[in-house]
Specification:
The protein is α+β, with helices and mostly antiparallel strands. About 35% of the residues lie in helices and about 25% in strands. The chain has helices at about 20-35, 60-65, 70-75, 105-120, 225-245, 290-300, 305-310, 315-340, 345-355, 360-370, and strands at about 15-20, 40, 55, 80-90, 90-100, 120-125, 130, 135-140, 145-150, 150-155, 170-175, 180-185, 195-205, 205-210, 220-225, 260, 265, 270, 275, 285. Strands 3-5-4-13-14-15-12-16 form an eight-stranded mixed sheet. The chain starts with 14 loop residues before the first strand and ends with a helix. It binds flavin-adenine dinucleotide. Flavin-adenine dinucleotide binds near residues 50, 158, 182, 223 and 279.
Length: about 375
């Protein structure tokens, strides 16, 4: 679905965006829409599979609509998820939530990159970008290369991004207690609980979440402690979480899981010189609350004033980092608290029992925890 080869890429665009996940495509859209010559490059060839629960939070939906990508988003028929069903220690409770969209992550990324092109960006997939120590960017595709000198470089290359590997000072700080991320999309008969619910099965060693796609398939995403995987293997660790939560372990047997490394991490810095880092490439927390895409999208939607000032030669790194930290602080606290609670199944099952019996408390919890998303 790309627009050409390296020959179609101008070598001195005002903005080069690296990585066409939701963060990069939104950043490219916003910059191109404002009239900046913008290039978006992506290492993988689209369509590509991506480990993700595929649930887009309300703030992300609103931000996509506000920056002119709403039509593209709705073209892939996302399914509104109106309930969050939590299972832990044999207890279960269903909380009404402001709808999240359940969607096919591979298709979302494809249509958002196409949306960036709609707004004037040049997009090329199958291109690996490497930022050189002098801020030049080497673009490589099938043995060809292009030396690019952009006005600014937006790094949105995710958790496994490679564009900054030759730059000093952007190392990852990884939490060694961090769980491992797993994902799959499976054929599975419809269960009465999962037609419009995100279902989360929580235990001490992690959680397994599911949501239904428009074509009936089930997206399964899990965050599992590295220790549990070492002990029981991936299938065994997932089955144990489901059993301990009090749910169905059988439906997840024999899944071909795709994994990502340890999830909880942060870059040592978010900006330097003409480089801005955002989305998963900047920091990552656990995906339990379905915040990841939304954070990246919202941050990218705000990029224009920073990019303009950077292009005018202003030093904005400190402000960019401060703003990123401010935006993340509250949400990360909520995320961590929920994740921490999810690993204490006794406490969680007690809370779920209370929520089940006292719906107003459930409503208040929902306002507190999920409305910031
Ligand atoms: C198990 C699991 C479940 C999750 N569930 C959810 C959920 O339900 N809801 C939610 O909102 N979030 C969820 N997340 C988090 C979500 O997937 C991420 O937060 C989101 O993908 C971040 O988007 P991004 O655009 O920043 O990065 P990515 O989507 O990772 O995109 C980065 C892109 O950059 C490309 N790239 C890398 N290096 C280079 C290079 N050198 N040159 C060019 N391109 C490069 C990559 O190929 C990739 O396509 C989940 C994550 C996991 C692991």
């Amino acid at each position: 679905m790309s627009t050409g080869t390296l020959n179609t890429i101008p070598d001195s665009p005002q903005a080069l965006v690296i990585g066409a996940g939701p963060t990069g495509s939104v950043a490219a859209t916003v910059l191109a829409r404002a009239g900046l010559s913008t290039v978006l490059v992506e290492r993988a060839s689209f369509p590509r599979r991506k480990v993700c629960g595929g649930c887009l939070a309300p703030a992300g939906i609103r931000a996509l609509e506000a920056c002119g990508l709403g039509e593209r988003l709705h073209s892939i028929d996302p399914i509104p998820m109106r309930h969050l069903r939590l299972q832990a220690g044999g207890a279960s409770s269903s909380l009404p939530i402001e709808p999240y969209y359940s969607l096919d992550r591979g298709r979302l990324d494809e249509v958002l990159a196409a949306g960036a092109v709609d707004h004037g960006a040049v997009f090329q997939d199958g291109v690996r970008a490497t930022i050189k120590p002098d801020d030049h960017v080497l673009l490589e595709q099938d043995g060809d290369s292009l030396d690019c000198t952009p006005g600014i470089v937006v790094v949105a290359d995710g958790l496994a991004g490679t564009s900054l590997r030759e730059r000093e000072g952007f190392d990852w700080v990884i939490n060694d207690q961090s769980p491992i991320g797993l994902g799959a999309v499976i054929e599975c008969p419809l269960d009465q609980d999962d037609d419009d619910s995100i279902v989360m099965r929580c235990s001490k060693t992690g959680y397994v979440g599911t949501s239904r796609l428009g074509d009936g398939r089930l997206v399964v995403a899990a965050a599992v402690s590295a220790e549990a995987i070492k002990q029981d293997g991936t299938q065994g660790a997932v089955a144990r979480i489901c059993r301990e939560a009090g749910g169905d372990a059988a439906r997840f047997e024999n899944i071909q899981w795709k994994g990502v490394g340890q999830l909880t991490r942060q870059r040592a810095r978010f900006a330097q010189g003409r480089i801005l880092v955002l989305g998963d490439a900047a920091r990552y927390v656990e995906p339990l609350t379905g915040e990841g895409m939304s954070w990246g999208i919202c941050r990218a939607a705000d990029i224009l004033p920073h990019a303009r000032r950077m292009l005018e030669g202003e030093e904005i790194c400190e402000g960019w980092t401060r703003e990123a930290n401010r935006m993340l602080r509250t949400r990360r606290l909520v995320c961590r608290s929920i994740c921490g609670l999810s690993r204490r199944p006794r406490a969680l099952s007690l809370i779920l029992n209370i929520l089940g019996e006292r719906p107003p408390i459930g409503w208040a919890t929902r306002r507190l925890c999920w409305s910031s998303s």
